[in-house]
Hints:
Elements: E1 2-13, H1 15-24, E2 33-41, H2 46-49, E3 53-59, E4 62-70, E5 75-82, H3 84-93, H4 100-107, E6 116-130, E7 133-142, E8 145-154, H5 157-170, H6 181-193
Antiparallel strand pairs: 1-5, 1-8, 2-3, 2-6, 3-4, 4-5, 6-7, 7-8
Amino acid sequence: MSQEIEIEFKNLLTEIEFQKIKTAFHIEDHEFIKQENHYFDTPQFSLKELGAALRIRKKQEHYVMTLKEPAKIGLLETHQTITKEAATEMIKTGQLFAGQIVDQLRKLGINDKSITYFGTLTTMRAEKNHRNGLLVLDHSRYLTVEDFELEYEVQDEAKGKVIFQEILNELEIPIRHTKNKIRRFYEQKYKEMG
Length: 194
């Protein structure tokens, strides 16, 4: 298990803005790597209500289960590496394997037996180091939605915010209040459920 604090800034993009960033940062198509995010919650969306999220991410042939929960600054992420077989079983049944994630869920007051698999969000992602941070360009598809997003992951929140706003200003991209992927996924799921 590993834990880390995630501090990131994000902004939804139009497809034209996405292409503009690719050009400005010299990002080639072959630099994008496919990753699948498989999302879980209780039927009552208990994790969502706590501002938390649970996913299994498949990146190349590696599988990591991550629980994100609010922290004083950013999000606390708890990571647990799992096998392909474990990931497949959890997606199929919704039943989590014992480990650090289940322990952390219990600390949050969530019954791990009530967890359900909700669906998959697929992202083509490119990453570039930029001014002591990580610039992330995502093209995602989930349910009936396709979206484009810029993220900037940093260690220093104040400096990161300034740099992120400079990037958007230089490329004439408006700042848009952007929810994280899992929130966008669940809001779309709500819409489609009727």
